[in-house]
């Protein structure tokens, strides 16, 4: 496994290209996307529907293969790894938060968070303590043993955030995490993501249509015509 020592970047994506067949044609979605994300840095990626934001996020999470380019997490070469190796690296390095919460209804709140450790083949007392600590941090200390089906949308997203943080990932990927929430609840979820990211020293990539949320990150990008463009602050 190729590892670059003493790196300062949580993620490095270089000249990422991805195309999809469309009948007799091929549609180029990503046309050489580059991104360097420093450790502890928060960035937002915006773009119109169909611009390739989710495709790019799936590629940098290792859930989807790139056509050409290079991808590193904390100096570890990701592209070209076996499925088993990639799954193990992702469980260790990456926390993911989606628009859909992907919680298991048969498990209570605490067990849904601990599930992240069980998927790595462990669930120690330390993991349980960390899960409780995170649920306190996200304001759900009185919901530990609730069925997730009894929670509001905002509460479910908070459970998903706690689960994403359980294994102390170095990188959080959030794909439209407020898409199913009302404005007030969505605002609180974004503030929570940014707060815990900075407290944990975790890098964050936020894909969002919401410009107000995007402006709260350290750097903003727009995915446009298959390329990432930096968005300058308005004077």
List the defining traits of the structure above.
single chain; 235 residues; alpha/beta; Rossmann fold; six-stranded mixed β-sheet; four-stranded antiparallel β-sheet; 7 helices; 10 strands; 33% helix; 28% strand; globular
Describe this protein's structure.
This protein is α/β, with parallel strands linked by helices and 235 residues long. It has a single domain, classed as Rossmann fold (3-Layer(aba) Sandwich). It is 33% helix and 28% strand. It contains seven helices and ten strands. The strands form two sheets. Strands 6-7-8-3-9-10 form a six-stranded mixed β-sheet, with helices on both faces. The protein has a four-stranded antiparallel β-sheet with strand order 2-1-4-5, covered by helices on one side. A hairpin with a 2-residue loop joins strand 1 (9-22) and strand 2 (25-38). Helix 3 packs parallel to helix 5 (153-165), helix 4 crosses helix 5 and helix 5 runs parallel beside helix 6. The N and C termini lie far apart (46 Å). The mean pLDDT is 91.
**How many individual β-strands?**
10
Main-sheet strand order equals 6-7-8-3-9-10
Oligomer: single chain
User: Which architecture would the CATH scheme give at its second level?
Assistant: 3-Layer(aba) Sandwich
H/E topology pattern: EEEHEEHEHHHEHEHEE
Shape: globular
Q: Which percent band covers the strand fraction?
A: 25-35%
Unreliable stretches, pLDDT < 50, 5 or more residues?
none
- Percent helix, as a range, is 25-40%
SS content category: alpha/beta
Name of the top-level CATH class = Alpha Beta
């Amino acid at each position: 496994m190729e590892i670059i020592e003493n790196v300062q970047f949580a993620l490095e994506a270089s000249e990422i290209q991805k195309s999809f067949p469309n009948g007799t044609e091929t549609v180029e979605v990503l046309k050489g996307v580059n991104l360097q994300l420093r450790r502890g840095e928060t960035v937002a990626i915006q773009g119109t529907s169909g611009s390739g934001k989710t495709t790019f996020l799936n590629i940098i999470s290792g859930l989807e293969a790139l056509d050409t380019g290079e991808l590193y997490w904390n100096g570890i070469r990701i592209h070209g790894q076996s499925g088993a190796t990639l799954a193990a690296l992702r469980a260790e390095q990456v926390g993911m938060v989606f628009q859909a919460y992907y919680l298991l209804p048969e498990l209570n709140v605490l067990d849904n968070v601990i599930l992240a450790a069980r998927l790595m083949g462990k669930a120690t007392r330390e993991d349980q303590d960390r899960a409780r600590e995170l649920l306190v941090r996200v304001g759900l200390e009185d919901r530990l043993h609730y069925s997730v089906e009894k929670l509001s949308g905002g509460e479910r997203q908070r459970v998903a955030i706690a689960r994403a943080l359980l294994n102390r990932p170095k990188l959080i990927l959030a794909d439209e995490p407020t898409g199913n929430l009302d404005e007030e609840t969505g605002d609180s979820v974004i503030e929570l993501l940014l707060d815990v990211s900075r407290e944990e020293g975790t890098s964050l990539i936020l894909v969002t249509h919401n410009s107000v949320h995007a402006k709260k990150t350290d750097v903003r990008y727009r995915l446009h015509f298959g390329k990432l463009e930096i968005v300058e602050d308005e004077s």
